[in-house]
Amino acid sequence: MIVRGAVLREMGLPAPYASSRPLRIEEVELAPPGPGELLVRIRAAGLCHSDLSVIDGSRPRVMPMLLGHEATGEVIVSEAPGFAPGDVIACAFVPACGSCAPCAEGRPALCEPGAAANTAGALLSGTRRLTDVHHHLGVSGFADHAVISAHSAVKIDPSLPPEIAALFGCAVMTGVGAVVNTAQVRAGRSAVIFGLGGVGLSALLGAVLVGAHPIVAVDVVPSKLELALELGATYALDAADGVDQVRAATSGGADYAFETVGSAKVLEQAYAATRRGGTTVTVGLPHPSQSFSVPAVSLVAEERTVKGSYLGSSIPSRDIPRYVALYRAGRLPVDRLLTATVGLDDLNQAFDDLAAGTSIRQVLLF
Fold first, then answer.
1. End-to-end CA distance of the chain, in Å?
2. Is 238 helix (H, G, I), strand (E, B) or coil?
3. Lowest CB count within 10 Å: 77, 172, 173, 273, which one?
């Protein structure tokens, strides 16, 4: 079949993207699903910094590529047990094989065949169903239809609005998961979140959910700081004011610090903002050339911990339904993350808005 989608053929074109137009809306041939795969009619797909980092070249990928990894849709054809036409699914951007060593240890975010497939721009089977175009993280959700591995799909409540449902596949799973799964923050412990995009504000929602206190939100955009306070932050601080204010707001340093920007410099700030015995969790994806440094002695003498969190250390089939249920119960107001809905032809301008920090989560609707 022929699908219409947003194809990136060259990374690193200059902003503004409304002028350089790195995303080209093209018709691409999509082959039918193979064994263990699904044909999905995409309903909605979120615009994430992980997409932007491919566009600007800070997250190198094989080209050309049909972007979009935070998506929801309806199964049209199923070649996999457990899924049937009409099922509504959210996509997870790491297809977990279920049998490699990390999967066997309950860490599907680190699935080795899934990582290899994502790097190659293929599906979990190692094949491509897009003709002459690579898949993005096994999803390629910026198109009206996609073929995905069933290992990338989680069935969800079909009554959930698609512009909300899409957010659970990346922003919510990554941000809330970093708090709940990676850091395992306990009630009454202090937390600071550096960066208030979709993932950072999801981490804030997770910190509120588990009863962290105080919660400090850090960013440079005033509107995001205002929203953070509305969502439950105790303090909202301008990043330009430095780490000292964060330490003061948390009586000498936070128990947990979360870096969601994708910057080695911000990661160093997050580490400096934690107390003795504190934990720093990094969620952002900086350019591979970036590195960071910390006083080595502090890891031992102060029992500090630095942890990476990919996919929120989540088990998507377990966590996405849980987070949807918490949203339904009013415990995770995910809808507050939605800035706007856009059309396929609006994507380049929408990524300008994302790069400028004027949006939190824009969602492509079909």
1. 17
2. strand
3. 77
The model's pTM is 0.96
Would you give the distance in Å from CA 220 to the centre of its chain? 20
Which residues share a beta bridge with 37? 149
The predicted structure's pLDDT at residue 106: 93
Helix (H), strand (E), coil (C) string for 135-157: ECCCCCCCECEEEEEHHHEEECC
SS3 annotation, 239-272: HHHCHHHHHHHCCCCEEEEEECCCCHHHHHHHHH
What is the pLDDT confidence band of residue 287, given thresholds at 50, 70 and 90?
confident
CA 56/CA 102 separation, integer angstroms: 31
User: Measured between alpha carbons, how far is 109 from 103 in angstroms, rounded to an integer?
Assistant: 8
Summarised one tens digit per residue, pLDDT across range 222-254 is 999 999 999 999 999 999 888 999 999 999 999
Least Cα distance to 360 among 238, 208, 228 occurs for 228
> What does each C-alpha distance from 286 to 196, 264, 269, 296, 321 come to in angstroms?
16, 7, 15, 21, 29
pLDDT digits (tens, 9 = 90+) for 155-213: 999 999 999 999 999 999 999 999 999 999 999 999 999 999 999 999 999 999 999 99
Instruction: Supply the angle between the helices 222-230 and 198-210 in degrees, to the nearest 10.
Output: 20
**Rounded Cα distance, 89 and 69, in Å:** 13
